[in-house]
Design a protein that fits this description.
The protein is an alpha+beta fold and about 220 residues long. The protein folds into 2 domains: about 110 residues, no CATH class; about 70 residues, no CATH class. Helices cover about 25% and strands about 20% of the residues. It contains 7 helices and 9 strands, in the order ββαββαββαβααββαα. A 5-stranded mixed β-sheet has the order 2-3-4-6-5, sandwiched between helices. A hairpin with a 2-residue loop joins strand 3 and strand 4. The chain is elongated, with a radius of gyration of 19 Å. The structure holds iron/sulfur cluster (2 copies). The site of one iron/sulfur cluster (SF4) has 11 residues, from helix 4 and helix 7.
Amino acid sequence: MSDLHVERPVVRSFKQKYVKEAAAHVRAGGHAVVWENDTRALLVFQKPSKENPDDFGAWAVYDMGKSRWRVHDRGTWKGLATTLVPRSCLWIVKRRSERDSVHPGPTRVLDLDCTSCAACCRDNEVFLERPDIERFEEAGRRDLMRPPFARRQDGRILLTLLPNKRCRHLRRDNRCGIYEIRPHACSEFPKGSECCLFAREDAFGISDGAAPQVEAS
Ligand code: SF4
Ligand code: SF4
């Protein structure tokens, strides 16, 4: 049973000569991948909202390991945001538009049930931030910052996984064992974003659209 309905952007690929159509798709709520040539593509999305930590445009960029975009004040992209897709991520945007080729319209409503999924609690990297450490300390759970629950990596504290890649705090019923004090990275994980869709596909092979044909590279 799903417990959450999320309206997410549908991703479409456009050739450079169809930039106006790409801009219209984005203004209607979608994401556009505009191909200048086979090895250079722009991701176009609505200007991310600073007030919305779940902003799908921003997370579509974070999912490529980037954190910057340009908001245009003139031209075809006026009012929209663009970022150059890193070469290493071209397969990712190809796969997104391939997945969404079966969805009509610029957006779609996705039903999610996090307790039957928990894909983002597997094979992840959850680093603790200062407020997480303070919250653990206030709760009398300094043990959560030490082995076997956590280890040091690059000077930061990282939650550890079980050998089967599940987070050590993920219970058998798929609920978080430290839910009330869970790290910020967990409570802020954006449901229905590209990061969520990737986690579901990676953990369970669930594609929210056409089955992937594009190979990871
Ligand atoms: S991957 Fe998405 S649907 Fe699954 S538990 Fe995480 S946020 Fe919920
Ligand atoms: S701490 Fe809880 S919410 Fe975070 S990854 Fe582990 S089980 Fe999931």
